[in-house]
Amino acid sequence: MKFLITGASGFLGSHVVRSACATQGADSVIAFSSKQVDACSTIIYSGSYSNPIVQNHALMDKAEVLIHVGAFSPKDRFHADAIGECNGNIYFMEKLLALPLTNLKKIIYISTVDVYEPAELTVEETPTLPSSLYGWSKLYCERIASIFASSRCIDCQILRIGHVYGPGEEKYGKFLPKAIMNIAAGKPVQLWGDGSEIRSFIYIDDVVTSILKSVDLDADVGPINVVGGIPVTLRSLLDQLIVASGRQVAIEAIKFKGTKRNYIFDNSKLRQYLLPVETKLSAGLQAEYEYMLGLM
Questions:
Q1: Do residues 295 and 173 lie in contact, with contact meaning Cβ atoms separated by under 8 Å?
Q2: The domain spanning residue 276 has which CATH number?
């Protein structure tokens, strides 16, 4: 089975490529990227993300499974409505599926939990009503993938990813990597509000395992939320991170004037089909903290 993996140079995509090469063999993996990926064969595209240009189609007809990870993903909440970048997700999807993928048998589309409307508990049946352009772009691409697969009589699996943490996320301006970097540098950690907002985190290795295991899903089970099933407050998350660091940490409370939103998921479907046991938060935090210490 030959895998074509997009976004091979990004946070999630690079992990998927490495794991696929390790478990399936490098000869079974083709990276689709704007630059060479050393671990396996690479289809390099030029041009912009919204208009990728592929000169060499030689490897295209070998791909049997397309794992479409590559996408604009906002590095913080202020970029969730970036018009050009969000439109780029749609344009890239259109250009990608127009390539000569003559032997394609399955599409695994990596979407986001940002497609859902706010809910006290999010499940796969929660109505889709994104609050950002980013969420709308991913929902639109889900539909493109489904229609394309149906027209070609091939399988399509939608995976909606949410709140991933682990080595490599330092590129994102989110609470967890910023807190780790400040702790490692001996600086105070900013905590907006009282820290009572709730999140459900999933470790990067668990996400990768779920993506690769979904290749073997035969039944049409519908979208699966690849999310953590154990909710934690941001203050509790910070306390666990401080324990992992073994340091004394000053916390700087910042007044929060916005609307609080909790993100709590039921990941029963994920556990049923793809990931029976998820990595403990304490172990994941320890691994990420040690990784980021090594970067300093």
A1: no
A2: 3.90.25.10
With contact defined as beta carbons under 8 Å apart, do 137 and 85 qualify? no
* Residue of 149, 138, 108, 87 whose CA lies nearest to 6: 108
HSE value, Cβ hemisphere, 13 Å, CA-based, for 280: 6
Per the DSSP assignment, residues forming a β-bridge with 112 are 161
What is the helix (H) or strand (E) element at residue 66, kind and residue range?
strand 65-68
Q: Are 271 and 229 in contact (CB under 8 A)?
A: yes
Q: What share of the chain is helix, strand, coil (3-state, %, to 5)?
A: 40, 20, 40
Residue 157 pLDDT:
97
If asked whether residues 186 and 266 sit together in one domain, one would say yes
Three-state SS for 89-132 is HHHHHHHHHCCCCCCCCEEEEEEEHHHECCCCCECCCCCECCCC
> Which residues form the domain of 253?
169-200+229-294
Rounded Cα distance between 240 and 235, Å, is: 9
> Is 57 contained in some domain?
yes
Average pLDDT per 10 consecutive residues for the chain, totaling 296 residues: 93 95 95 91 85 83 95 83 93 94 96 95 97 96 97 96 91 84 89 88 97 91 96 92 89 80 93 96 92 82
- How far is it between the farthest Cα atoms of the chain? 58
Same domain membership, residue 93 and residue 18: yes
How far is 75 from 107, CA to CA, in rounded Å?
26
CA distance readout (Å), 49 to 85, 113, 171, 235: 9, 23, 18, 37
Whole-number pLDDT of residue 130 = 96
Distance between CA 12 and CA 275 in Å, rounded?
Answer: 17
Q: What separation in angstroms does the CA of 270 have from each of 45, 201, 213? A: 33, 14, 11
- Measure the CA dihedral 12/16/22/26, to 10°: -120
8 and 155 housed in the same domain: yes
For residue 108, the model assigns a pLDDT of 97
